[in-house]
Structure formats: C-alpha cells, structure tokens
Write a structure and sequence with these properties.
The complex is a heterodimer of chains A (346) and B (158). Chain A is built from 3 helices and 16 strands. Chain A is mainly β. In chain A, the strands form 2 sheets. Chain A has an 8-stranded antiparallel sheet, with no helix packed on it. An 8-stranded antiparallel sheet of chain A has the order 13-12-15-16-9-10-11-14, with no helix packed on it. The radius of gyration of chain A is 23 Å and the shape is flat. Chain B is elongated and about 55 Å long. Chain B starts with 11 loop residues before the first helix and ends with a helix. At the A-B interface, helix 1 and helix 2 of A face helix 1, helix 3, helix 4, helix 5 and helix 6 of B.
C-alpha cells in the first residue's frame, strides 16, 4: 500500500478526486443496470381478456390497482361472447440463473383477435426483457416480438399482431434482447396450435364510419403493397404491427389504413403505445423498414395526438396509397424514428 | 485520543478534511452507515409486503451481505487495517445499494454510502492514514459486491 500512497502523492489531488468519483459513478451505475433488476420485483396484474375476470397472482398490490380500474369502469370486461384457448404451456427455467414459472395461454378473443395471457407468471428480472413467440431450433431473435415485458410478476396480456400464423411458433420465450439470453420458456401445446390459426382485427374498436366487417389480414411475413382502389367498399386496405424504432425508443400496437364508409381514407392506430417525446409526428413512408431517411419523401399526416391509445388520422383525399409501405412515428426535433409499422394488406 | 498535527496543505480537499473534528467525522460515517443499513433492510422487507406470500431470497441475500459488512465496519477500536475496513463498509453501501437503486429507497442507500465514504475519508485523513487505504476499501467493496452477485445468481434460487 505504501507504493500506492507514494504514487497518489505524486498525482495532483484533483486528478485523484476525479478518477475516484468517476470510478464510483461508473461502478455503481453498471451495478444498477446489469445486476439491479435481479433484486427489483415488478408487478402487472391485468384481467384475463377471455373471461373478463381478474385472477389471483403473486402480486397483491398490482391486483388491487387492477381491481380499482374495473371499479372505475376504466377497463371494462368483455361482453361475455365466447372465445377459446388456442394453445397453452407452462413456463420453465431457461437455465439455473434465469428462472420462470406460470402459464402462457394463447387465446382467441370473442372479437377474433389473438391474445397471449400470462397467468400467475413470474420470471427472473433482467435489464431488457421482451416477450417473443419462437420456434424450436430457431434463435429467439428470429421470432415474433410481442413487446417489452410489462413486469416480471403477475397476470399480463400481450396482443398478437393481426395475421399472426401460429403454426410457425411452438413456444413463448421471455428474452433479454440486449444480451441475447432466454430467461424462461413455455412450450405451447393445444388442439389447434398446429393449424393455420390467424388473428382478425378487433371489430369493437373501430372509429365511426369505419368498415363494419374488417377482412382477415394477411400474415406479416408476406406484405403486399396497399392500394386505394381495392376493395371498392369500406375495409382495411393494409395493416401492420408497430415495432421499436431506434435504440431507446419503443412502440407497439397496430396501424391500419382504412377506407371509410363515406369513401375517405383513414389511418387507425389501435392498442397503440410509443415512447413519448417532443414534436412527434405520424408519417407515411415509402420504406418498408421505416428508415429515418425515408421521412423526408413521405407524407406527414399530423402531430401525434398521444403516445398511448386508439387514434385516427385523416389521410388526404387523392393520396396514392400504393406508394407507402410503412407508418413511422417520427421526432422532428431530434430526427429519430420512435416506432414504425410495416404495412401489408389485401 | 491523540490529535495529530498536519502541515498546512495547498490541497483544498485536505484542508477541508483537516477542518472537520476527528470524532465528528467518525460519528457521521457511523450514522450514515446505520441509516443505509436500515434503508436497505426496509427495501427487502417492503418488497416482500408488495407480494403477499412471496419471499425474495436473492434480494435478502444481497441486503444482508451488504448490511453485515457495513455494520462490522462501524465497530470502534484500533487494529491494523481499520482505515481499510471503514472505507469498505461505506463502499458496500454504495455498490450494494446500487443493486437496489431502481427504487428511491435504494438510491437513498447509495447516498448514505457516499456520505459515509466522504466522512470515512476525512476521518482516515485526520488519523494520518494513507489515502490508498480508503481507495482500496472502496475498490474492495466493488469487487466483493460483484462476487456476491455472481454467487447469488449461481447458488440462490428466486
């Protein structure tokens, strides 16, 4: 220690002070980011969309909050129509360090939409966890992202994008995107999971004047350029699921280009959520990948009304929709793509 | 307690340390450590109450490990390595507390550790201890925390 002390005495005091302060800040910050989630339990307790009921889970406070939402009428249960469980499986540990339990249930809701319900779910917390549908033998990263994990405990719902082909997936994986590590895996089993189950867009969340019977959307994997000439009547011309934009900016939900009953064109964002930011706008882009560079050549519809919820944006009459392949949520102040949805359609 | 005299230093940090009574610096360091330990234990207890019927062994393990070392570093007495141990206890609250810093109470644990570390540095300086002892204590706390996390991940189930 003597040699170190002699060395420190030779170094200007302010250099030593700055190095020590920087070391402490970096060390503590890294500890918080990398290891902190291990000791941080979060809870989200949502109702089961299939039954409309709140179910027991391991997190009590979250359950109380969720119950209050029902009492307030802010999150009404469904109308009692029949749905079905398409497939289900129990979570297991991905390895000894990353543990999970609970049930994953793929549900077809009464309105035709597909929903993933995690029941009495718990998983080791991590810094960057996502819910994925994946197939055995494939990298989780190549699967279908259902969005960021809401919490590492509780009962939770994740909407499956319209047109999801369930026959492609046989498991639900809780996956750490930053480090490419599986945390928990639920292998799905069920009578209809092997069949070509697809989701239809919810019929109960349409805007006034919207199509009354939305057609089944095509699978996301085979996007077809939208057109403003077919179908002739009201309908969904194209749709796509929002995915995260540039790092640190997250988005989820569905974008639908609709022809309304009156002949007008409309962009409907359903179950939409995006990281909030200054000066966000909604842009139709010619680039299916929603790149930043394509914004200038795109069509800006309007300022984003809110970063959560169902929203409508009028598309100017005469717009040649066939040009546009994606919807971008774009920050004008700090040119950044917050989220984008690649459009596919009939 | 013998009070050592120090030549007037051009270093403002040393001048500041010399302006603080030795006993006061020690008292502040102990008080900050006790507060940090209490907050860390509260964090683990509070988390259990948020999840009725649940117990989180990993959280309790890191909290108890951090708390025990911080408390041991408060025991008064003169023995070899005293300066190192005092700094180690403060560092445990900084780095161990950083694991809890996703909640405000965890941030408070870290702040207690920072206050304790500054007080320990002043106390060590007043006693004529080498600066290196304080720095080694902080570095060792970071290393011990990293080892503890590794062991917890490997051997403690959720």
């Amino acid at each position: 220690m003597t040699w170190l002390n002699a060395l420190l005495l030779r170094i200007p005091w302010y250099v030593t002070a700055m190095v020590v302060a920087a070391g402490v800040v970096v060390g503590a910050g890294a500890t918080r980011y990398f290891a902190g989630p291990l000791f941080y339990e979060t809870c989200e307790n949502e109702r089961n969309l299939l039954t409309g009921e709140f179910e027991a889970s391991n997190c009590g406070e979250g359950a109380k909050i969720a119950q209050r939402q029902v009492d307030d009428g802010s999150d009404a249960p469904n109308d009692g129509r029949d749905g079905e469980v398409v497939a289900s499986g129990e979570f297991r540990d991905a390895d000894s360090a990353h543990q999970g339990s609970g049930v994953a249930e793929v549900q077809r809701l009464p309105n035709g939409a597909l929903n993933l319900f995690l029941r009495d779910f718990t998983v080791t917390n991590g810094p960057d966890l996502y819910v994925y549908l994946a197939a055995e033998g494939e990298q989780t990263a190549g699967g279908l992202s259902l969005g960021r994990l809401q919490a590492n405990n509780g009962n939770q719902n994740y909407e499956l994008p319209a047109g999801t082909d369930l026959s492609r997936y046989d498991r639900v994986v809780i996956w750490c995107r930053r480090f490419d590590v599986d945390f928990a895996i639920a292998e799905l089993g069920g009578a209809t999971v092997a069949g070509p189950a697809t989701a239809t867009p919810p019929a109960t969340e349409q805007p006034a004047g919207s199509p009354t019977a939305a057609p089944t959307a095509a699978p996301q994997t085979t996007p077809v350029p939208p057109t403003n000439t077919a179908p002739a009547g009201p309908g969904v011309l194209a749709s796509g699921s929002f995915v995260d934009g540039e790092p640190g900016h997250e988005g989820s939900g569905i974008a639908e280009l609709q022809r309304l009953a009156g002949g007008g064109l409309n962009l409907f964002l359903s179950n939409f959520s995006v990281t909030n930011g200054p000066d966000l706008v909604v842009v139709l882009s010619e680039d299916p990948a929603g790149s930043r560079g394509s914004v200038s050549g795109g069509l800006t519809l309007d300022a984003l009304k809110a970063n959560n919820g169902n929203q409508n944006y009028e598309i100017p009459a005469g717009t040649d929709l066939i040009r546009f392949k994606s919807v971008i949520i774009y920050c004008k102040s700090f040119p950044t793509v917050f989220a984008y949805a690649t459009l596919g359609g009939s | 307690m013998a009070v050592q005299s120090h030549p007037m230093s051009a270093n403002p940090v040393e001048r500041w340390a010399e302006s603080i009574p030795e006993q006061a610096a020690f008292a502040v360091s102990v008080a900050a450590k006790l507060a940090g330990v209490a907050l860390a234990l509260w964090y683990a207890y509070d988390q259990d109450t948020l999840f009725p019927g649940e117990h989180f062994p990993r959280t309790w393990t890191i909290v108890v490990f951090t708390s025990v070392l911080a408390l041991l570093s408060c025991i008064p007495g003169r023995y070899p390595g005293r300066a190192f141990v005092a700094a180690l206890g403060a560092g445990m609250l900084i780095f161990g507390g950083a694991n809890l810093a996703h909640r405000p109470v965890g941030v408070a644990v870290v702040l207690c550790g920072v206050i304790a570390a500054v007080a320990v540095a002043a106390w060590n300086h007043r006693r004529g201890e080498p600066v290196a002892a304080t720095l080694f204590g902080l570095v060792a706390a970071g290393a011990l925390t990293a080892l503890a996390i590794g062991a917890i991940v490997q051997f403690v189930d959720e």
